[in-house]
Design a protein that fits this description.
By secondary structure, the protein is an alpha+beta fold. The protein has helices at residues 7-16, 19-44, 51-55, 107-112, 123-150; strands at 56-60, 67-71, 75-77, 85-87, 92-93, 99-100. A hairpin with a 6-residue loop joins β1 and β2. α2 (19-44) runs antiparallel to α5.
Length: 151
């Protein structure tokens, strides 16, 4: 039977980590795990103008240990209906010549298809291709942060 030496000391040091430091390390690790998935999804997006590719991102939640990967949409609150939003469809052109408030709402039609257009999936295959790399990135980040915090 093998023995692990120093486990009690390690446990004591890990218990001294604050909740805030632990949450920060987990959020950082989740962000690191999201990067390879976002990169792969962007690579797989059917390219027309390149606008949809720029709208794919990872967003960290401030209140939960959560990272959401998806398409960024401009949402506008529905008047009189608390908590309800609709997609803001009015695109404006800024003085610099860039689109503002533009939406890539059509991502859903590309991913799942319509009655007149076959599906061209990119989100699910991108996730499936890089989920193992994402898990490795999360583990590596947590390992680095915990070792650094325990020192």
């Amino acid at each position: 039977m093998s023995k692990i030496h120093g486990l009690a000391e390690l446990t004591a040091k890990l218990n001294t980590l604050s909740d805030k430091a632990g949450k920060k390390a987990v959020q950082k690790a989740l962000g690191a795990g999201a990067k390879p998935i976002v990169k792969e999804i962007r690579r797989r997006v059917p390219k027309d103008t390149g606008f949809l590719k720029k709208q794919i991102n990872a967003r960290k939640s401030r209140s939960q240990l959560l990272v959401q990967i998806g398409v960024r949409l401009a949402l506008k609150p529905v008047r009189g209906d608390q908590g309800a939003y609709r997609i803001h469809q009015r695109a404006k052109i800024s003085p610099a010549g860039r689109l503002q408030n533009a939406n890539a709402f059509y991502w859903y039609y590309l991913e799942f298809g319509t009655s007149k257009m076959p599906a061209q999936p990119f989100m699910q295959p991108g996730f499936d291709a890089k989920k193992d790399d994402a898990l490795d990135a999360i583990v590596d980040s947590l390992r680095r942060d915990v070792i650094e915090a325990v020192r």
